[in-house]
Amino acid sequence: MDDCIIIGAGPAGLTAAIYLARYHLAIRLFDCGSSRAALIPRTNNHAGFPDGIPGKELLQRMRDQAARFGACREERLVTRIEPKKTGFAVHVEGGEYPARAVLLATGVVNAFMSSGATGYDSKVWESLTHFYDTRAWIPRNVTFINKAALDSLDKPTQEAVLKAAKVAEERGWKLWENKTEWYHDEIKKKGMKVLQPSPELAAGFKKIGEQLTADWLKRSGAEGQAVIDAYKKSL
Ligand SMILES: Cc1cc2nc3c(=O)[nH]c(=O)nc-3n(C[C@H](O)[C@H](O)[C@H](O)COP(=O)(O)OP(=O)(O)OC[C@H]3O[C@@H](n4cnc5c(N)ncnc54)[C@H](O)[C@@H]3O)c2cc1C
């Protein structure tokens, strides 16, 4: 059993790791890799660096220092912490780790893009106050089938598959409508403001979408263009 599992390897978690590991405690350090410090071009207020230091370099130095004492950062997303009779079980995808103590150094989030569903699942109201309903991500259920596989079926089976797919698609869209409203209501109940995006924000997203589509079309060629044309026609 580890003495302490530290969740988050930004400056806070790494500082804790250096101190605790230096005192010969068994430390495990889980991090899912999005320290805000990595975004700092050059920080000028970190003690010991009078000429400043880029955020990425600071993180690397701190990781190296922690590793010298045996606390190595492991790229893992912690999904749950379970209290046990003695200590805790820390759950990551594909495993759980026992620890006498758990130290949370998970930082804060300024903003992020997700569906209402992910916002609800990740308890977005704990970090943020506003949710803009941009519909950038929507949960959908779509039935896919390989065209060659479909063509290889006899006519009655093809018809049965297409009929079932149509029912599934209608059910999927209905579920999406109900679920989207439900998630928005739930995050409202938790105190978040659910708003429509301003014209500027909507125009910004449109521009990003156009750029992403243009980049994709460069790679996908005529076949991609046909997909986009069909999509635009259906709007
Ligand atoms: C553009 C920019 C410039 C900045 N400039 C400065 C500056 O000049 N000076 C200054 O003092 N501060 C600056 N800051 C602020 C500084 O980056 C933060 O104060 C600092 O990074 C906070 O450190 P932290 O360790 O608390 O959190 P973070 O650095 O955010 O680290 C938290 C870590 O926890 C991990 N994590 C979260 N949840 C989980 C989970 N469930 N499982 C596993 N890992 C998880 C994340 O992946 C992340 O790596 C700046 C921030 C930004 C965005």
Largest sheet properties? 6 strands, mixed
Number of helices: 6
Helix/strand/pairing category: alpha/beta
Question: Cofactors and ligands present?
Answer: flavin-adenine dinucleotide
What low-confidence regions span 5 or more consecutive residues with pLDDT below 50?
Answer: none
What is the strand arrangement across the widest sheet?
Answer: 3-2-1-6-5-4
Helix content: 40-55%
What letter string, H or E per element, gives the SSE order?
A: EHEHEEEEHEHHEH
Q: Mean pLDDT across all residues, rounded?
A: 92
SS strand fraction: 15-25%
- The backbone outline, from C-alpha atoms, is extended
What is the C-alpha radius of gyration, as a whole number of Å?
24 Å
Total DSSP E strands: 8
Distance between the termini: 57 Å
Question: Which short descriptors sum up this protein?
Answer:
single chain; 235 residues; alpha/beta; 6-stranded mixed sheet; two-stranded parallel ribbon; 6 helices; 8 strands; extended; binds flavin-adenine dinucleotide
Would you mind describing this structure in some detail?
This protein has 235 residues and is of the alpha/beta class. 46% of the residues lie in helices and 17% in strands. The chain has six helices and eight strands. It has a six-stranded mixed sheet with strand order 3-2-1-6-5-4. Strands 7-8 form a two-stranded parallel sheet. Helix 1 (11-22) links the parallel strand 1 (2-7) and strand 2. Helix 1 packs parallel to helix 2 (55-68). The longest helix is centred in the C-terminal third of the chain and has 36 residues, at 199-234. Flavin-adenine dinucleotide is lined by residues 7-13, 30-37, 39-40, 43, 45, 77-78, 105-107.
